[in-house]
Amino acid sequence: MLNVLMIDDDIELCQMVREYLSAEDIGIQTVHDGEEGAKLALAGQADLVILDVMMPRINGFDTLRLIRASSQIPVIMLTAKGDEIDRIIGLELGADDYLAKPFNPRELVARLRAIQRRTGQRNQPAGETLLVGNIIIHPAERMIAWRGQALDITSSEYSLLEVLIRNAGRVVSKADLFEQALGRAESRYDRSIDVHISNLRAKLGLLDDGRSPIQTVRGVGYQLIPGE
After folding, report:
1. pLDDT(177) > 90
2. Conformation bin of residue 63: beta by default, left when phi > 0, alpha when psi is -120 to 50
3. Rounded to two decimals, what is the model's pTM?
4. In what order do the strands lie in the sheet containing 214-217?
5. Three-class DSSP category at 91
6. Separation between Cα atoms, residue 223 and residue 165, nearest integer Å
């Protein structure tokens, strides 16, 4: 069973989500304070976190910082409808995905299941270690090493980079990255892929020739150049 921790000060919303997820055979624990939520997220009992941005005392961004300081547990941020800045900040801080309030519970379940499918792959036979240039990918552990060093990346960043690695040297469209890495269709004005790519570029650094290993092909998508 998937076990979810929801951190949100909206008690009525938490109750509604609890009822819906329970009917979908998803376990859920709710907490209404960011600091307490971060402690529970780091306790290792939850598989995934649903985190609201707007909370008293410690907001969702600061809560995410506390979590990301020592854990890469998948996090879905809940943002205000139409607030693109909050969505981008959340993704830049390491959120795996986001939903704008108010949201359809079915969409929340779809996002949860998509992340569950991706992260659940570490418990499945996933093929042999793959070496591409300076990159080594260990599918069974969902771990990627760049120039001999394991990358500290989120679940969504791993999935995105894995797709690019398996298509190294070829351009992968944003639509394909949404489908294959995030498990959902591309939607208009959704910049999730762009922000995840920006985070990955910062973590990978530059090739010897000064280029980023992830190249943008304008109007098409992204291409991985693994280096030698």
Report:
1. yes
2. alpha
3. 0.83
4. 171-173, 221-224, 214-217
5. helix
6. 9
**Two structure tokens written together for 117:** 């499918």
What are the CB-based long-range contacts (under 8 Å, 24+) for 215-221?
Answer: 217/171, 220/171, 220/173, 221/171, 221/172, 221/173, 221/174, 221/175, 221/176, 221/177
pLDDT tens digit sequence for 107-156 = 999 999 999 888 765 444 456 788 888 889 988 888 999 988 999 999 99
The overall average pLDDT reported for the chain is: 91
Question: CA nearest 225: which of 210, 209, 213, 211?
Answer: 213
Rounded Cα gap, residues 79 and 91, in angstroms? 11
**DSSP for residue 121:** G
What is the predicted pLDDT for the residue at 121? 52
For the chain, first and last CA: distance in Å?
Answer: 42
What is d(CA 210, CA 24) in angstroms, rounded to the nearest whole number? Answer: 49
Q: What is the pLDDT of residues 37-84, one digit of tens each?
A: 999 999 999 999 999 999 988 999 999 999 999 999 999 999 987 678
What type of residue sits at position 70? S
Q: State the helix-helix crossing angle for 105-119 and 155-166, rounded to 10 degrees.
A: 60
Rg (C-alpha) for the chain, rounded Å, is: 18
Quote the CA–CA distance of 40 and 7 in Å, as a whole number. Answer: 10
Domains and CATH numbers, the chain: 3-121 (3.40.50.2300), 125-224 (1.10.10.10)
